[in-house]
Description:
about 45% helix; 7-stranded parallel beta sheet; 6-stranded parallel beta sheet; alpha/beta
Amino acid sequence: MLCIVLFLIIFGAHCFVSVNFPLKVLHVASGDLWAGAEVQLLTLVREQMAMPDVDVQVALMNDGEAATRMRALGVPLHIFDESILSTRALIRGLHDLLWYNRPHIIHTHRSKENVLTAIANLSAYRAPSVRTVHGAAEYEGGIRQYVIRFADWFTGAFLQQRLIAVSADLAGRLNAPFHTNKIRVIHNGVDAAALAPLRRQRKSAEKHIGIVGRLQTVKRVDLFIDMAARMLADEGEQKLHFDIYGDGPLRTQLQARVAGPALSARLTFHGHCDDIYPRIAALDCLVMCSDHEGLPMTLLESLALGVPVVAHAVGGMPELLREQTACRLVEQHTAQAYAAAVFDVLRQAPGDEISLPEEFSAAQNARLTVDLYRELLASA
């Protein structure tokens, strides 16, 4: 009898504490950029911190914009600077953090963090681990990239218990390399109520068409610029202006693509903007012409702000936009097709028909994520 009691205390107590006491969650992410994945992480952390039964901490590999915003929220933050620390030192730092804090759930958000945290977890606490797949993986060729891709796959297949896909399309892509029963679809979410006061604050006589995001190849800002040139040639009496919000390694190359005084006078590179929400709200149309996407936070924010969207029919964007009659999906990935779709949107009378469904709210995203944590702990 004494043995049975001791067994229940040692092995049963952990399950009881994990499921019913405040959940100790550790998020691990890079934090080197301020992009969609980082915005979603910050949104999720903010919502989880508001839950009385969740205790959240965050570990970042870079002390950048994401870290600054985490500190402003009062998030318990741990920085392991990858520009200073070796891979071995990063693993050791994560190991010590796991050993002394003993989180119930580890939630990772990118390939490198998936792998390093899994290695640290093996030699430390072995807590259940979850990853969010924010978008399709982008790997270049070469042996090093193959090793990274293999390590990330091995981690997801054998060392992590669940993979969160932000869209059904992304979940379908993950079905082949991973077991279907490990994948859960949990849509990204935004706080629509917080954005509501900014909805549709347009004051300019010009029609403003914009694109928001890092200036990287996958975002296809080159297509946006070519679309702008084509639209200016056919604008007629309406006056158009094109706005590019964001910064990145392709900025100089993209600026060189803006040929001629007519286009340069009507197209503005604004760079990184901290006050992006009122700038999105001032647009008459947002264009998303990426080669591929998961479920972009900018898309959700635009709908919450009442801004029509023209988007490439890839990733999670069709899931959200098919029911939005004021928005357009583009199948042909060409400047001509985007120009035609934007002109079609601009011809519409402005209205309040654009809205963000409840299933894409920040609260719903956090609630489903915590439910997944508890499911994992209960099964453990």
